[in-house]
Design a protein that fits this description.
- It is found in: Cell membrane; Membrane.
- Pfam families: TauE.
- It comes from Micromonospora rosaria.
- By secondary structure, the protein is an all-alpha fold.
- 80% of the residues lie in helices and 0% in strands.
């Protein structure tokens, strides 16, 4: 019972982060399952089965708060489902050890771009509201779905930074659309695992615990992403991408850094991230005060007499 309660709390916390930042449910949950001895395929299958419920709840919540761009959901979700099914079906014979550092390096680069862009300039508006093309979203979805099922998580970390970096969709709608489309990925990956593994290696009690925690957190996260300023949200997303993928690179065979080096790097990243967030918050408050003063000045200008 204690383990089930712990899993429910992990599901709640993971979905709160995922629904607010568009990533981390699968990564967090899978990491815990692996830590207690679950084999990779069964861990990923458990998480994806739970995600059928959590992503449905999250998608409905984001839709009700106006955070979903449906054309993006369709254009990225269908290819993503294909990639997820393929990755889940062949997980036992596929290795992501070589691809993982390459993907981490790409994501780290995107994370740096997002952190610098949002912290320094705020919400990108030069291309905002221009359509995201299928030729961009379809390959992105295919790769993200494949990585998600083979790695136990990755739909958000791959999809969210790529769409954010395009500057064509505001952050809350990027997150809402990615979370909503993940419902398709969860279904496809779960079907793939059931075909490849059967159900004997999946603990459905663990699935239920993760599901309950995630469903409770979904509407809270959807509300949160609507009310967090885009500038602050962009800095938060950039920081978590940098921290997550720096950890992957430092622990990879490419670098295999000793513990002292890794922990020093993590500390520096967290300090820079905290400073960027503080700067973004101050800049947002300054912009809001300036907008309020402009409105007051406009209201005080006397209307022209006839």
């Amino acid at each position: 019972m204690r383990k089930l309660i712990m899993l429910a709390l992990v599901g709640l916390g993971a979905q709160l982060v995922d629904g607010s930042l568009g990533m981390a449910y699968g990564v967090t949950s899978t990491t815990l399952l692996l830590a207690i001895g679950t084999n990779p395929a069964a861990a990923s299958a458990t998480v994806h089965l739970a995600e059928i419920g959590t992503t449905l709840a999250s998608g409905v919540s984001h839709w009700r708060f106006g955070n979903v761009n449906w054309p993006v959901v369709i254009k990225i979700g269908i290819p993503g489902a294909i990639g997820a099914f393929a990755g889940a079906t062949f997980l036992s014979s596929l290795s992501t050890e070589v691809a993982a550092p390459v993907m981490a390096l790409i994501l780290l680069t995107l994370g740096l771009y997002i952190l610098i862009r949002f912290t320094t300039f705020g919400l990108p508006t030069d291309r905002l509201h221009k359509p995201l093309r299928k030729r961009f979203l379809a390959p992105l979805g295919l790769v993200a779905g494949f990585v998600d099922s083979t790695g136990g998580g990755g739909w958000g970390p791959v999809g969210t930074p790529a769409i954010l970096a395009s500057g064509r969709l505001e952050p809350r709608k990027v997150i809402g659309s990615i979370d909503t489309s993940e419902f398709l990925i969860a279904i496809a990956a779960s079907l793939g695992f059931l075909v490849g593994l059967g159900s004997e290696n999946i603990d459905f009690g663990w699935v239920a615990a993760l599901l309950i925690g995630g469903v409770i957190a979904a509407p809270i996260a959807a509300w949160l992403v609507r009310h967090v300023p885009p500038r602050v949200l962009g800095s938060a997303v950039g920081g978590i991408i940098i921290l997550t993928n720096s950890r992957s690179l430092l622990r990879s065979d490419w670098i295999d850094a000793p513990d002292g080096t890794r922990y020093t790097a993590y500390a520096v990243i967290v300090l820079v991230w905290a400073a960027a967030l503080a700067y973004s918050i101050r800049a947002h408050l300054a912009d809001r005060r300036a907008a309020e003063h402009a409105e007051q000045d406009k209201a005080e200008i006397p209307a022209p007499t006839a």
